[in-house]
Amino acid sequence: MSPASIFGAFLQLILFSVLCQGLRLYSKAKLNYSRNHYKVMSRVLVTGGAGFIGSHTVDKLIEKGYEVTVLDNLERQVHLGRKPKYLNEKAEYVYEDVRSLKAWAKVLGDVQYVIHLAGAVGVGQSFWQPRKYMTVNTVGTANLYQVLMANRERAKKIEKIVVASSKSIYGEGAYLCEEHGVVYPGPRSTEQLKKKDWEQKCPICGRPVRPVGITEEKPAQNLSPYALSKYDSERLSLQFSEVLGIPTVAFRYFNVYGPRQSLSNPYTGVVAIFLSRLKNGKPPVIFEDGKQVRDFVYVEDVADFNVRALERGQGVFNLGTEKPTSLLEIVSILKGITGARVDPDVTGDFRPGDNRHDYADTTKLRREYGEYAFTDLKKGMEKLAEWSSGEEARDMFEREEVERKKFIQI
User: Fold this and answer.
1) Which of 21, 75, 101, 252 has a CA that sits 20 to 30 A from residue 6's CA?
2) φ and ψ at 208, to 5 degrees?
3) Cα Rg for the chain, rounded, in angstroms?
């Protein structure tokens, strides 16, 4: 073979290699475009999307290129009859109620994903408004599946459903007995609480126990109508996940706090209630001795998991930080941030239905979604306080207490 022929063959080989590499790059670029284009064209329905957790979830979805429809009734107890200033203008809003089948039928028409966050929130109030809580939370969720069951072709287009459950379904927390290991005591008796004997005991031997993280395997106790309604919502979603073949995640939120949480709703989270009291120059009221611990998780972290769950996960997951913090510590942090000089009122009183301790075991969450750097509690509180400086805070705590004592006698 002549040198010219060898050179020609070599040149052809180079050109063929360049062409193959170009085709690979083109195919990869086309695939990435298709994925991004598909994401842009995907629509997510967020119920409760004008609310506390929902609005943060909407913001993150839009940042990631999703189209968003919000179904929200602008609950007066939360929004005081006004549209929030923080609503994302890029979302489409339908101001109707999840208790309406027609509302669900209207908003499910062109969505591929559902994040169902709408619900009535408030453990205490659920005792004297059980019908409201069961219809909003239980029936509201059942309506979603009623509409999907009536239109199975529509249901086939739903790729994922994410549902807001609650740690309240657990009731009491999980505890460790030196002799019997992890135990799940029932609620403390009124007789015990009247003696100001706040701590739990081992249900087997009666010895002192210490709190440990709650795993998803802990049996539900559902100590309030609110807890029962959230358990209903969770169970419905998982049952219909099997019936309709729709992958579903139910997050059991622990104590969510952060900007946009109502400062004028006495049935909202304890952090917002404490902050509202401090902003009004009044002492935060703490029941029992203030040493009870909870798991406080920042709202943007919760919203982040809501969005991540569209792409992975199936079943129930605790959504907390795995870090217990006492109520006395929460007040101390808020006082340090705000400069308030009001000490908490630790009443030594108790409320029926309150559990002693709870915080999350997040092993299952981390196994599915990987390690996650949750927002530091103090930094999260600082963000909440900064946001609250321009917000109205109507202290409604005393009115709530009058209402509670009117309906619940000890």
Assistant:
1) 21
2) -60, 150
3) 25
The structure tokens 């609250």 sit at: 388
The rounded distance, in Å, linking the Cα atoms of 166 and 253 is 5
**Catalytic status, residue 175:** no
Q: Does residue 97 come out as left (phi exceeding 0), alpha (psi in the -120 to 50 range) or beta?
A: beta
Task: Give the chain's domains with CATH numbers.
Answer: 34-173+213-407 (3.40.50.720)
Give the predicted TM-score (pTM) of the model. Answer: 0.88
User: Long-range contacts for 374-380 (Cβ within 8 Å, ≥24 apart)?
Assistant: 374/297, 374/298, 374/301, 374/321, 374/323, 375/298, 375/300, 375/301, 377/296, 377/321, 377/323, 377/325, 377/333, 378/333, 378/337, 380/257, 380/258, 380/296, 380/298
Give the span between the Cα atoms of 199 and 196, in whole angstroms: 9
Query: Which amino acid would we find at residue 232?
Result: D
**Residues facing residue 67 across a β-bridge:** 43
CB 202 within 8 Å of CB 180: yes
Both tokens of 115, joined, read 């994040």
Are 248 and 156 within 8 A, CB to CB? no
Instruction: Tell me which residue has tokens 């005393």.
Output: 398
- Sequence-separated (6 or more) residues with CB below 8 Å from residue 208: 199, 201, 202
Mind listing the pLDDT tens digit of every residue in the chain (410 residues)?
Answer: 555 555 455 445 555 554 556 545 444 444 444 444 444 469 999 999 999 999 999 999 999 999 999 999 999 888 878 899 999 999 999 999 999 999 999 999 999 999 999 999 988 888 989 999 999 999 999 999 999 999 999 999 999 999 999 999 999 999 999 999 999 999 999 999 999 999 999 999 999 999 999 999 999 999 999 999 999 999 999 999 999 999 999 999 999 999 999 888 877 889 999 999 999 999 999 999 999 999 999 999 999 999 999 999 999 999 999 999 999 999 999 999 999 999 999 999 998 779 999 999 999 999 999 999 999 999 999 999 999 998 877 776 666 666 666 666 66
- Output the six-digit token pair for 81: 């009859």
From the list 145, 175, 226, 267, the catalytic residue is 226
* Nearby residues of 118 by Cβ (< 8 Å), 6 or more positions away: 47, 48, 51, 54, 71, 72, 73, 98, 136, 140
